[in-house]
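Lab notebook, bench 4. Continuing the backlog of folding jobs that were queued last week. Each job is logged with the same field layout so the records can be merged later without manual cleanup. Today's entry covers Alpha-1,4 glucan phosphorylase, a 812-residue chain. Filled in by technician R.K.

JOB TYPE: sequence-to-structure
TARGET: Alpha-1,4 glucan phosphorylase
LENGTH: 812
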Amino acid sequence: MAKKYTKKELEQQIIGKLRRNFGREVEEATPVHMFRACALVLRDIMSARELETESRIRDSHARQVHYLSLEFLMGRSLEKNAYNLGVLPQLKEAVEGLGFSAPDLFEVEPDAGLGNGGLGRLAACYLESMTTLEIPATGYSICYELGLFKQKIVDGQQVELPDNWLDVADCWLIPKVDETERVHFGGEVRDIWGEDGSHRVAYVGGSDVLAVPKDMEIAGYGTEHVNVLRLWDAKSPTPLDMSLFSRGEYLKAVEQQAMAESIAKILYPEDNHYEGKSLRLKQQYFFVSATVQCICRQHKAEYGTLRNFHQKHVIQINDTHPTLVIPELMRILLDEEGYGWDEAWHIVTHTVAYTNHTIMVEALERWPQQLIETLLPRVWQILVEISNRYQAHLNEYFHGDQSKVRDLAVIWGGEVRMANLCVCACFAVNGVSALHSDILKRETFHDVYVQTPEKFKNVTNGIDHRRWLSEINPKLDALIRECAGGDAYLLQPEKLVQLERYKEDASVLNRLAEIKAENKRSFAGYVARESGVLLNTDAIFDVQVKRLHEYKRQLLNVMHITYLYQRLKADPHFEFTPRVYLFGAKAAPGYSVAKEIIHLINSLAATVNADPACKDRLQVVFLENYRVSLAEKLMPASELSEQISTAGKEASGTGNMKFMMNGALTIGTLDGANVEMHQQVGDENIFLFGLKANEVAEKKAKGYRSYEYYMHDEFLKAVIDQITRGFDDGVGYADVTNRLLFGKGGPADEYMLLADFESYREAQERAGRTYRDPGRWNRMALVNIARSGIFAADRSIREYARNIWDVPAKKL
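JOB STATUS: finished
OUTPUT FIELD FOLLOWS
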């Protein structure tokens, strides 16, 4: 039975931490001291539970899940951990009792800079759910010193600033120096043959980097089970060359240290040049090599052999970034354990499973052969052997049809294709929505699917509903508890459906509307404090927040806003429902088109917001530095959720689920998990538009001509011409519109914005008309919340546990 903590006990523990760890009395403590003291108190609770969890796992010899991801977008941890540990009310009281504001204290914590988008946010949700369901699991990633970047908007353009999150939030990390692993790069491989025909390899030259684990504990909800996110920090084995230092060559003396530590310096270095590619490959190998060595060392200490490794472990790789786990595990089994190829391959192919997150060709990683040969010579040899054996199998299966062999080969044309290595070696391959998994089977990996259909699975993504509904939207949480059987939905999200009994209850619908209005006012207050911008809370909050990418079509949204602006200018009596358009997005530093679209959004916003014709009718705001903690404030206030990617391009999405759970209605294409959301709520509770995935493919096959749409739609032509000229700041965007009309190094309007514009415009009109009928809008919102339970991460993790990992999950 978990110990219950009182306000007084927590106060005493916080005071103790302030004194022992920071040498401060409460009166001398800054908010940062107080935050760190609170974090250390919670960490102590979790540490005790972690030791008990480890003991139970050891005693039961349970199969363990190892979740490898280059991103874990954890957000802030203090409030979340307190919530899951069941001490949030007491912690708030203790903090207030010590003279600090609890809301202000939570704001002190920076977002943990361990990811840049949906991939990392999903991994964080899954780790919380695995812990709540008491699955023995560990997450693994890199302890990035700097996160993606802090985004500053200067003169309408994105500027990237360093995100030094560890300065304050490193109190969550527990260094385990005694479990350091050594990762080898470069050099040469020598084959050594024994007289009995045995073979071993020796490494000559090269350099080592130390991987030092720093563990972040993960608390589950309603359980004493604690899992761990292990983050690897990179250190040099020889921090300082004293001989060089004593000769006065100071920079050269620390060069090796700097080179080693660069691996964990920053999330995802730019890879559009050789040095960037080299560093990113080093990151990937560093993280998987340290992880596999760690798992193997612990397993061997327990069982004395690795022959049963695949029976006790499953390694889930989140996208292709951790793919080198396959040859690295082979290397350990072949070189360090002396197993034969067939036995080693059997273990690997029954241990590793792969989640695919994209069908975008540019995101299916390919590495230059020369880079792997140089940096990872032994891994390269193993990759060649895997490729040769697989290619021989493909030749036989496809009767020498080289077009098939070429598409599926692991190594071809001087490149190593990581996705092909995954489908070759992993015992399971899953997509992350029904549509996405179908595309993987029907198109992307079709020729592998026909050979091994049993390998392909679907697990539709899910979100941590405890965080993304209950914790961030307490007023809605209170209403749900009243109407849907108390707090049972927190562990049984399917119970949200009980809320639907009230869809005709005017008093419940009115309360739902008032909760949304309060959340809008609260968010508007936050925006006013942060930026001085005053939002019109009487208008629809129409929101598009996600990574800036052309296929996500923020530009289509901009085109429609431009259309509305032009109509308002031409006719002040133009009938339309007032809108506040909220954008939030970071563009990858090297993605020039995405950065130009951010500039365009800000140009449009400046013009619209300064024009008297738009006052109280149209407003556009770009929210700077979009991140988890900002999303937590925004989601409860949102009313219309923009999920408008080109059909067939978005694997799933998870933002769409967060909006849905918080009562926003979706305007979207039938793409990713929108398809399943539509199945849950029906035509009448969502605003669908646009081409379907098969129609996109057909239109492209027949020869899509975007220019014809431009010439035959006067509204669309006026919009494109306006964007080409630009707005009041005098900046033109001909490069953007030329890509739509004529292409640039690729097809014109690759993501079919012009083809979908009219349908999108009509869907926006439908949404506006519906909003003017509050009873109907609120009923639709309630139905969306009630039917969102299927998109909880608990459901996703149960499916992984049952259909892929073969591990039990706690019955709730």
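OBSERVATION: The longest strand covers residues 207-219.
SIGNED: R.K.
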